[in-house]
Each structure stands twice: as structure tokens, then as C-alpha cells.
Design a protein that fits this description.
The chain is mainly alpha-helical and 87 residues long. It has one domain (6-84). It contains 4 helices and 3 strands; from the N terminus they run E-H-H-E-H-E-H. A 3-stranded antiparallel sheet has the order 1-3-2, sandwiched between helices. The model is unreliable at 1-5 (pLDDT under 50).
Length: 87
């Protein structure tokens, strides 16, 4: 998950604050991306904190609530590098 660096409630808050100040598009920061990352990362940390919204993808908070896992950028680094054309 990118954009704010992680998929967790804190990451969604950071991304929302950034979005209010600068225009950006989500890059692997949607509910579908989160679900794929959790499926590929069986050792993800439990999600903690207070739920919030994600205006760029209203389904993302529901996915976080449902799966309850925190996904760090490092956990999906291979996917991010592939997107950038590197390996």
C-alpha cells in the first residue's frame, strides 16, 4: 500500500490529510490492493486504532475492519518495485 506508506488507520489519516493539501492519486492504496496484500502476507500485524474514512476509496475502511491487518510498504515492496519497472 502506498500513498501514505501503510494500510492502517494512521495511514488513512495521513493520506486524507495529504489529499486535503495536495492532489494525489492512490497507488496500490485501494480496498482491492489491501485485500491482495493481506492475502499475500500471512504474518501481518493486527490492526489497531480508531477507524476513519478514505475518500479516494470508500470500501477501504470496511476492508480494514473486516480483515484487521496492518500492511506496511516493506511487505509489498516487490509489487511496488515491479510497478516502477525495477526488480
Amino acid at each position: 500500500m502506498s500513498g501514505a506508506g501503510r494500510a492502517g488507520w494512521g495511514g488513512l489519516r495521513i493520506a486524507s490529510a495529504l489529499l486535503r493539501r495536495v492532489p494525489w492519486r492512490p497507488w496500490r492504496y485501494t480496498a482491492a490492493d489491501y485485500r491482495a496484500a493481506v492475502a499475500a502476507t500471512p504474518l501481518a500485524s493486527p490492526l489497531a486504532g480508531t477507524p476513519t474514512t478514505a475518500v479516494w476509496d470508500p470500501d477501504l475502511p470496511a476492508a480494514l475492519t473486516e480483515l484487521g491487518a496492518r500492511v506496511e510498504e516493506e511487505m509489498v515492496l516487490d509489487d511496488l518495485l515491479t510497478d516502477l519497472g525495477g526488480r
